[in-house]
Structure prediction request, 400 residues.
Amino acid sequence: MKPRTINIISVKWIPFLCFFCFALGILFTNSIYGLWIRTLTPPEFNGQLMPRHQGGRGFQMVSDDCATSKFSQNKEVMNEVLKTHGAIQSLDKAIAMLQMELAASRSSRELTGLEGVGSNSTTLTPTKPKVFMVIGINTAFSSRKRRDSVRETWMPQGEKLIQLERERGIIIRFMIGHSPTSNSILDKAIDSEDSQHKDFLRLEHIEGYHELSAKTKTFFSTAVAKWDADFYVKVDDDVHVNLGVLAATLARHRSKPRIYIGCMKSGPVLARKDVKYHEPEYWKFGEEGNHYFRHATGQIYAISKDLATYISINQPILHKFANEDVSLGSWFLGLEVEHIDDRNMCCGTPPDCEWKAQAGALCVASFDWSCSGICKSVEKIKSVHEKCGEGDGFVWSALF
Prediction:
């Protein structure tokens, strides 16, 4: 048997072999690195490798593009959300208005006593007349002379009162409740006066000086049930009113849904018990010496249909403060109500309103602040009417 032959590489070939392996390794590594770079590089760079010192900025640009795209998408989503939210709010308002009208209709049926029941009529409640404004003149059992002085000056009587309702859509009524004793001599006196003049609105209310806030609620509820008006006005029986100027003033705000118009004030909350306008619940208005919120003075003010309907619906839960004008203002706090401060609704008596009339700026209403009405109105209101009145024909030609 022949022994195996072992071939040994010559020593001189070892350096060449090492160099060959080193070159082959470098070639292989570069190929792999190039493939890796081409794989990670986005199409926007057209396959060209950026220098190493710009590589970080390139990846930052890609990140920024992604962030911008996401921001645009989020902005579009937020716009859609806001549009949907606005549509929901509009729908909520529409539903609220329908609920208000339904509640007002229900209240109207209750206040009118379901007229038609027991008769051959198929309609339970008559259709409410559509008018421009309803004016309620607040009066008392003892104020017969005041009422007569109003009838002799700015309030039309008889056929003219009916014509004013029919042609101009203006309803004027003295509003009064009942005495604590059923069918008393006081109630009979009002019934007799009403049969003569037919200008009363009887309220389901027990008369009393400290019950004016309750009377105000009842007036608006009763008026809403009887008439479908754009505005409802409350005025005291010792105030002079120019009907045509009042109508023209309210007409300027006819397109606004929730209007509260009068002479706005904010008097001090009186904690002392020995003063006229003492507020027993003064502590609810903060520290002693604080002022009331803005509200219209009680001699005359007007509210739009939506606000009168709101009072009618929520009458049982509306809180009554000691002063009627404060109570009314409190009922509108927290609501979307536009307060309009119109100083022509609180002019002074002559010479104040007389000067304004001579300048062509007729007042809506005139009274004396010192008396919260015209001082000695029975004797003085005729003089006010002569010097500050708009004239008998103005209400028939006024634009509203």
